[in-house]
Amino acid sequence: MDLTAQQPTLVSTLVREMRLRGYSNRTIKAYRSCVRAFVRYIAPRHPRQVGQEQIREFLLEMMERGCKNSTINQFINALRYLYVELYHQPLLLGEIPRPNKEKKLPVVLSQEEVRRIFDATSNLKHRFMLMVTYSGGLRVGEVVKLRPEDLDSDRGLIHIHGGKGKKDRYTVLSPVIVAQLRDYWRLYRPRAWLFEGQQAGKPYSIRSAERVFEVAAERAGIRKEVSIHVLRHSFATHLLESGTDLRYIQELLGHASSKTTEIYTHVSQRKLGAIRSPIDEMVGSSVAPPSKRP
Description:
Layout: H1 3-20, H2 25-42, H3 52-64, H4 69-86, H5 111-119, H6 124-136, H7 140-143, E1 151-152, E2 157-160, E3 169-172, H8 175-188, H9 206-219, H10 230-241, H11 246-253, H12 258-261, H13 269-272
Antiparallel strand pairs: 1-2, 2-3
Helix pairs in contact: 1-2, 2-4, 6-8, 6-10
């Protein structure tokens, strides 16, 4: 059986079924990539011809290639969809263990660092896009899909349509953004999308928005390892530091669980900055300076 010739059909069937079930484009793209990698690994066999042991070998191979635990979990999710949803083989993946998730804390910028990023962006569209992203705590996929009518200046709200998990929500619309919007509107006259790409009637691409941030962060001298998503993390942390209730931050971010939002308590300067190190008690006491050796 020549699986190379069959792969396009298998993948297209997977994509079609996922679209019919309303999966997001990002999830479809991720699952498609995972299944393609799996199909190449087991070739020339068809996925129906392999068992749990071969799936385990594939996942182990991906680990040995340096894939992160989050990536391995995505492989498992994609294969679970392939076998359980498409092939109706629920027992095949039943005993596949999932690696523990990495418990990494989000990188957060100070308000001064965020301001430097804005100041380093001379293009009005680019600067306004980054400001909207930070001011409402938006995901990059949400900001590029904003329509002009989603900004309700009278109520001070931004309406997010079909966010993560296909959920709608509202977040805050700052008066600063409303004031900037007037200048932006006069210059660009957006129609279908608030941020239109080079092709008329098409939204700005996610990758282009990410690149806008990368250039701005480099010009601003930000040395932390950051992506545009750091603006969302910084928004949540700065709200927490200003005294905003965690439950409201959860609503603004669109988190399904409060546990997801609670991660910002671990990086809040308001919490950690209030703790004094024991060495502070030694200042001016008996701690002697280091001696200079000849």
